[in-house]
Amino acid sequence: MHADTTLTPAAPSWKEQALCAQTGADFFFPEPGSSVRDAKRICLMCDIRTDCLEYALTHDERFGVWGGLSEKERGRLRRR
Length: 80
Description:
By secondary structure, this protein is mainly α. The protein has helices at about 15, 20-25, 25-30, 35-45, 50-60, 70-80. Keywords: 4Fe-4S, Cytoplasm, Disulfide bond, DNA-binding, Iron, Iron-sulfur, Metal-binding, Transcription, Transcription regulation. InterPro entries: 4FE4S_WBL, Whib.
């Protein structure tokens, strides 16, 4: 007997759905001292922002803007 198996595509991960994936890393990983204002503006419009921030905090991401927060802002959040 042959089992009928239908492959269904996995749901896209939050990273694939995030607006930053459609924008480019330059905004989110700027040169030291550069503004992160544009990245934060994009994050504010993103439905995946909470998942992104949770990932960054869980995985101790030290660089870039994640979930709308800069490295310094995430550091302050961790110290609470």
